[in-house]
Amino acid sequence: MVESSLQTGYVKHAPGFVENAGPKLITSRFKHTDSFTLDKYLSTGGYEGLKSSLNRSPDQVHNEVREASLLGRGGAGFPAGIKWGFPPEGVWPRYLVVNGDESEIGTYKDRLLMERDPHQLIEGVLIACYALGLSQAFLYVRGEMALAQERIALALDEAYKAGYIGKNILDTKFSVDVVMHWGAGAYIVGEETALIESLEGKRGMPRLKPPYFPAAIGLYGKPTIVNNVETLSNLPWILNNGASAYKGFGSESSPGTRMFAISGHVKRPGVYEVEHGVTTFRELFYDDNFCRGIRDDNELKMFIPGGGSAPWFFQEQLDLPLEASAVGAAGSMLGSGAMVVMDETTDAVKACLSVVRFFARESCGKCSPCREGTTWEEKILQRILDGDGRPSDIDLLLDIGDNISPGPYPAAAFPDEGLDAVPFPPSQTTICPLGPSSVAPIVSAIRRFRDEFDSLITRRDPIPLSLNVEEVVT
Amino acid sequence: MMAFFNQENEEIAKEIVSRYPVARSALIPLLHLAQEQEGWITKPAMEQIAELTDTTSVEVLGTGTFYEMFKFHPVGKYLIKVCTNISCQLLGADELFEHVKTVLDIEEGSTTKDGLFTFEEAECVAACTEAPCFTVNYRYFHRATPELFDEVVVDLKAGVSPLSKGCADDQGVMPEHGTLSRFRQQIPKSRSAGIKHPEEIKGPPSWIEEVV
Fold it and tell me: In what order do the strands lie in the sheet with A224-228?
């Protein structure tokens, strides 16, 4: 019953994706209601990239991806072709782990790619396995994404039966197993070494570094490549059309297209496939082809340019292109491609608390600066909002931040106050970037909206002296 | 020891374990399977999972308690989660949260007396442009209003599936808490490339020499 209702398209697509003008490399099938079925995939050019790969040597496929300068779409933006070159010579077996544990605040491109075009992802996985010489891959889907799990499981079954996965793929010697794995609710598992721990059946805590890359020592202590869902979904197109055609889109340093999720106070929020590196934030938020402006034509107050971990941007940064180095130099990051737009009616302190609370709850507890720091930050912000803030609280917040991430913290320029941008990334006293991420909203909000904090802090005594001595004695 | 899994699920559990090079990797999927059978993770479940994954039941507990989706006490038939993260909060999640609390007449984190509903605050569920969002047994309801929530509750109390009101216009039946994917991957034995323990593999896969 469930199988048939999924296959016949009873279950529609969850909304979110906006079909607009512009090149569509990885979302070309999203408009079809049955885009997730093998039939539809094959009738729209599916598995051609795999066929074209199998006619070449693994090294040639690897070179094609390297030449395309495909940047990782998980958050760090590391070139996939270079990462693939990291596994040490002569160490076997090797594994591929697909990171579909998308949980960053505001982000949801991977969920749509898994729900709407699972075969495209599977084809990408197979191409990667071929180039890397692997015989097993794991597809880690976030636990909460029930529909994505159904679609991926169905697609894997169809692909196994039709001979695209498993033994002797397309009647060649190439053989690989692809297994769907699913999580159980933990943001930190999106960190690649935590993902591997979780896949080994352990608590999802990041591993100590070095080794910095699981490509050297990963799953079961063996070389492991961890790639994001969107990164791998680009491979069929690249192998079909070639690296030079891919570089015809986007800018030189950020080729191709990228999926961005824009939420918050815009008129047409949604997930858009956008040319990488050339489009600006202003175009994205105001153009008719994209979000069509701020709701009620309000003024923009601030926006998060790349997921909850990114320092905030303001009006002055609107004309920056969606390009990693430009955004990094301006004090933030494109990260996971999630933007949250906030208009003039937004309470900066409340927004700051909302983001910090997320990190406090999701801290895994392994490193003390993060475990203690994030919780403390949350408590202080809460008491400021409750009207119990102390004059020293702002310095205290910045001091806690400095313990997690010493030195000047990345921030956007604030020309009115003569403050320059502090470039990304932040330093860290923790194993992974979760702790430092909690400092981003605090530094951003205090630097820009200090007056809002000050107006909430009315108490003048650093320690409440409400006890009357005489009362206590008698 | 009395086995926890029923016969059908025990077969499924063994099949899941066989997909992994190391049995322990099946630990989280098996905890999900146990939760699917019972609605929460019981002690006998952990004991049998330990046996199946070559671990101890305390290791199963250790792993399981890290992940918020696993419940180690009974919860309602329907787990209602309201997202209160920034994108949802900007568009009315706080009001929705208060509404849910009032309608169900329970505190966040608790279960109604009739055992029907458990109410929790959710962290970002990746539907930010369709804010605010709540989920029932991890099925998404988008651009949620208090009215939509009321309709869903009425349906669930009447034993009617509210899934068609959800984001995917799903005509299926709302599964009870514990069931995630209603469709399970199965690798046909004849099609598997062959899964081995990592220590048994000494060199590159045999197909490489054939294609190079």
Answer: A177-182, A136-141, A95-100, A224-228
Q: What is the secondary structure of A36-60 as a DSSP string?
A: TSHHHHHHTTTTHHHHHHHTS-HHH
- Measure CA of the first residue to CA of the last residue in chain A; give whole Å: 76
Q: Is residue A4 packed enough to be buried (19+ CB in 10 Å), middle (13-18) or exposed (0-12)? A: exposed
Contact list in B for residue A133 (CB cut-off 8 A) is 204-205, 208
Tokens 């997730």 belong to A36
Q: Which of residues 61-80 of B touch A (CB under 8 A)?
A: 62-64, 66-70
Delimit the CATH 1.10.10.1590 region(s) of chain B: 7-64
pLDDT one-digit tens code per residue, A339-357: 999 999 999 999 999 999 9
Tell me what ipTM this predicted complex has: 0.96
Per CATH, the number for B78-165 is 3.40.30.10
Of A144, A183, A265, the CB nearest to B28: A183
Q: Is residue A53 predicted with pLDDT exceeding 60? A: yes
Q: Where are the domains of chain A?
A: 2-246, 257-456
The pair of three-digit structure tokens given for residue A132, joined into one six-digit string: 């890397």
Kindly state the tokens that stand for A390: 């102390």
Coil/strand/helix, residue A167: coil
- The Cβ of residue B65 has, within 10 Å, a number of other Cβ atoms equal to 12
A172 and B CB contact within 8 Å: yes
CATH number of A257-456: 3.10.20.600
Quote the tokens at residue A298.
Answer: 């309000």
At residue A49's C-alpha, the angle toward residues A48 and A51, to 5°, is: 60
DSSP per residue, B67-100: STT--SS---SEEEEEE-SHHHHHTTHHHHHHHH
Q: CB within 8 A of B198, min separation 6: which ones?
A: A93, A220, A221, A222, B21, B22
Class of domain A2-246: alpha beta
Chain B residues inside the 8 Å CB shell of A93: 21, 196, 198, 201, 205
Which of B87, B168, B207 lies at the smallest CB-CB distance from A106? B87
Contact at 8 Å (CB) between B61 and B53? no
pLDDT of res. B210: 78
Residues of chain B with CATH 3.40.30.10: 78-165
* Interatomic CA distance for residues A295 and A5, integer angstroms: 38
User: What 3-state DSSP class applies to A180?
Assistant: strand
Which pLDDT tens digit goes with each residue over A68-77? Answer: 999 999 888 8
Residue B142 contacts A where some CB pair is shorter than 8 Å:
yes
Q: Is pLDDT of A334 > 70? A: yes
**Treating both helix axes as pointing N-terminal to C-terminal, what angle do B43-53 and B7-18 enclose, rounded to 10 degrees?**
40
Name the pTM for this structure.
0.94
Structure tokens at A39: 């039939």
Q: B201 contacts in A (CB within 8 Å)?
A: 92-93
Residues A131/A139, Cβ–Cβ less than 8 Å: no
What pLDDT shows up at residue A8?
A: 47
What CATH number should be reported for the domain whose range is B7-64? 1.10.10.1590
List the single residue in B with minimal CA-CA distance to A351. Answer: B86
Q: Quick one: DSSP state of residue B131?
A: -
Helix (H, G, I), strand (E, B) or coil at A264: strand
Residue pairs between chains A and B whose CB atoms are closer than 8 Å: 265
Tell the residue number behind the tokens 């906030």, with chain if given: A342
